[in-house]
């Protein structure tokens, strides 16, 4: 049996079908396990000690990396002999930091000469014992000049790639991905989040080491496909879950100037339901600058999708007096059973000079889909009573409930022109297949914190109504017997009393006959690098007696790739299938707000449909 060796520079493969691969690491302090950290860096760690976090339990990692070593001194110290004595399946090799000039004659190597020959010798000797080497380029340092990341390790990284190409060895280009990460996130964030001290720009704390190990594991999955079955980038679903999740991609790729956002789907019933998904483009250089709504459809449950169509005439922007531009956005289509029509509801947004008008009127917008012509009616607005509180009142990004008699319970958030805080209420509406009409409203929920409560979502489960509410510092929930009048709001918690960690973003519902589920994002998922912790996307069952999330049922629906996944939606496709649709929103925190097409995790503005298949 041929074996593969993973080098901390770039050596790592596994033979197909191997039940329990053994990975041995050779490298320097950025890779090494730190068993006794120094007092000035108590959280010091190397990425090698974190690599097992991304492998299945049967895989073994033996870390022989040692601080201060180079390709020359690692052999001289007898450490390479220890690597070979392990009889590894894979060897990962990363050096370069201590091969650089200034490290002394016992360590320095020439990236055009001796460094390459040392790597070739590692490869030959690994192969001689039937192990497979994997080269890893040097992880980047966090050294910045004028706010931009710099690197002196380039010649060594290029040497690794050249030797890998020449010898047919897979390479993990860690220098590239770590450089992209530290450059994108900027000096302050990268040093505070990943550095073991304020002064150390080379090594990592445990969080930084884990992030770098993730970058290694993600590339190993691609460049060493035999190892892929043993790499686990997200936690497995809970045992005995009454569903399976199939993650599909509707579209992917973007140009760095605009990206798709707000993908939301509605299902038209049939032997095989037709799913119509709407979405719109966002201008990357602005904030919430949306263009016309588009749609695409599938008649085979997501195996194929029609070409994306932009509906400028009916779902596009409009001009208002004074140079104001108004658009319909945050739009969610859903089948209205009594009328037999697909009704989409969202809200309006107004711009002046391609900037959102802050003190602006907002209306609830709506449009009806014509299945025969595959077109939408010109978007209209819901007519509300002429009261001050409805000055800014919209149903953007909400989940509605259609009652058996055809009436619609539509949650909205609202405030008067002079109000500081948003409030939430549920509107009772009628829809006859042609027009959405206001009939009345329920009680109002409020919280004098942040911007108040907003972006509510409503569901009905076993005769009661459940309403989520967004707040700047917490997600909230309230319960009602009639769908209009609610008890006190309470923050989302796990059943053990700990905060769910959801804040300043949406939560939505999946209601099944025997269980109620919440879909959400949260902090505490090693996702500090994601804007407002809006990825990955989770689902978990709700204990309706405690009104709390059951931690043990938590499942990752859509993994995180550095881009936020906060603006998502639920589509009830059939009795046996529910979809959660979401796009990678390609903006993040400052200083570099736009995530470029080339980024460390491979985010590419994918529009995902997570198909939840109920057993």
List low-confidence stretches: 1-17
Helix share of residues? 10-25%
**Straight-line N-to-C gap:** 40 Å
Number of helices: 8
Content-based structural category? alpha+beta
Q: If you average the pLDDT, what whole number results?
A: 96
Anisotropy-based shape? elongated
Largest sheet: 7 strands, mixed
What is the alpha-carbon Rg in Å? 27 Å
How much beta, percentage-wise? 35-45%
Q: Give the strand tally.
A: 39
Write the layout of secondary structure elements.
Layout: E1 6-8, E2 10-12, E3 22-27, E4 44-45, H1 47-50, E5 60-63, H2 71-76, H3 79-85, E6 90-94, H4 114-128, E7 132-136, E8 143-145, E9 148-150, H5 154-167, E10 171-172, H6 174-194, E11 204-205, H7 206-223, E12 243-251, E13 258-268, E14 274-283, E15 290-298, E16 309-310, H8 312-315, E17 318-320, E18 324-336, E19 341-351, E20 364-370, E21 375-376, E22 380-381, E23 392-394, E24 401-402, E25 408-415, E26 423-431, E27 436-446, E28 454-461, E29 464-470, E30 475-480, E31 490-491, E32 508-511, E33 516-520, E34 537-543, E35 548-549, E36 555-558, E37 569-574, E38 577-583, E39 607-614
Parallel strand pairs: 1-6, 3-5, 3-6, 6-7, 7-10
Antiparallel strand pairs: 2-7, 4-11, 8-9, 12-39, 13-14, 14-15, 15-16, 17-18, 18-19, 19-20, 20-21, 20-22, 23-25, 24-25, 25-26, 26-27, 28-29, 29-30, 30-31, 32-33, 33-34, 34-35, 34-36, 37-38, 38-39
What can you tell me about this protein's structure?
The chain is an alpha+beta fold and 615 residues long. The chain is 14% helix and 35% strand. Strands 1, 2, 3, 5, 6, 7 and 10 form a seven-stranded mixed beta sheet that branches. The longest helix is centred in the first third of the chain and has 21 residues, at 174-194. It is elongated and about 85 Å long. The protein starts with 5 loop residues before the first strand and ends with a strand.
């Amino acid at each position: 049996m041929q074996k593969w060796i993973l080098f901390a520079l770039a050596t790592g493969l596994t033979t197909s079908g191997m039940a329990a691969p053994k990975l041995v690491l050779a490298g320097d302090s950025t890779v090494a396990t730190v068993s006794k950290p120094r007092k000035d860096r108590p959280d010091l760690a190397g990425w090698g000690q974190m690599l097992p976090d991304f492998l299945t339990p049967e895989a073994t990692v033996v870390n022989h990396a040692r601080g201060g070593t180079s390709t020359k001194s690692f052999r001289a110290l007898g450490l390479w002999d220890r690597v070979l004595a392990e009889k590894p399946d894979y060897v990962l090799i990363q050096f370069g930091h201590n091969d650089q000039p200034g490290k002394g004659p016992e360590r320095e190597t020439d990236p055009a000469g001796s460094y390459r020959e040392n790597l070739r010798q590692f490869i030959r000797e690994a192969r001689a014992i039937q192990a497979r080497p994997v080269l890893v380029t040097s992880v980047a340092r966090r050294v910045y000049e004028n706010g931009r990341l710099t690197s002196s390790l380039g010649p060594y990284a290029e040497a690794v790639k050249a030797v890998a190409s020449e010898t047919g060895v897979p390479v993990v280009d860690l220098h590239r991905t770590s450089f992209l990460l530290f450059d994108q996130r900027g000096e302050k964030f990268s040093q505070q989040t990943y550095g073991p001290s304020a002064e150390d720009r080379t090594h990592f704390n445990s969080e930084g080491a884990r992030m770098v190990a993730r970058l290694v594991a993600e590339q190993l999955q691609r460049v060493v496909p035999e190892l892929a079955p043993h790499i686990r980038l997200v936690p497995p679903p809970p045992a005995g879950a009454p569903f399976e999740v199939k993650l599909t991609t509707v579209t992917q790729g973007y140009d760095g100037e605009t990206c798709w956002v707000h993908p939301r789907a509605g299902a038209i019933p049939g032997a095989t339901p037709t799913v119509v998904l709407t979405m719109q483009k966002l201008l990357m250089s602005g904030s919430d600058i949306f263009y016309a709504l588009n749609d695409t459809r599938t008649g085979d449950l997501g195996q194929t999708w029609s070409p994306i169509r932009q509906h400028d005439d009916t779902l596009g922007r409009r001009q208002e007096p004074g140079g104001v531009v108004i658009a319909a956005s945050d739009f969610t289509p859903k089948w209205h059973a009594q009328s037999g029509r697909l009704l989409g509801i969202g809200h309006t947004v107004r711009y002046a000079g391609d900037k959102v008008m802050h003190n602006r009127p907002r209306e609830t917008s709506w449009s009806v889909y014509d299945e025969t012509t595959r077109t939408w009616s010109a978007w209209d607005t819901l007519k509300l009573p002429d009261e001050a509180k409805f000055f800014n009142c919209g149903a953007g990004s909400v989940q509605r409930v259609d009652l058996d008699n055809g009436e619609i319970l539509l949650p909205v958030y609202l405030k008067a022109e002079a109000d500081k805080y948003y409030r939430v209420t549920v509107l009772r509406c009628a829809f006859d297949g042609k027009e959405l009409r206001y009939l009345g409203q329920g009680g109002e929920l409020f919280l004098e914190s942040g911007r108040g409560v907003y972006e509510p979502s409503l569901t009905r489960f076993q005769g009661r109504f459940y309403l989520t509410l967004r707040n700047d510092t917490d997600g909230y929930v309230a319960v009602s017997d009639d769908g209009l009048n609610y008890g006190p709001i309470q923050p989302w918690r796990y059943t053990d009393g700990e905060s769910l960690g959801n804040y300043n973003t949406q939560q939505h519902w999946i209601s099944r006959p025997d269980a109620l589920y919440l879909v959400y994002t949260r902090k505490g998922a090693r996702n500090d690098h994601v804007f407002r912790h809006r990825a990955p996307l989770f689902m978990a069952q709700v204990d309706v007696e405690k009104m709390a999330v059951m931690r043990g049922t938590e499942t990752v629906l859509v993994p995180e790739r550095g881009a936020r996944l906060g603006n998502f939606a639920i589509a009830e496709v059939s009795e046996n299938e529910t979809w959660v649709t979401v796009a990678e929103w390609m903006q993040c925190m400052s200083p570099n707000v736009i995530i470029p097409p080339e980024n460390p995790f491979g985010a590419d503005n994918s529009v995902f449909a997570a198909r939840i298949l109920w057993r």
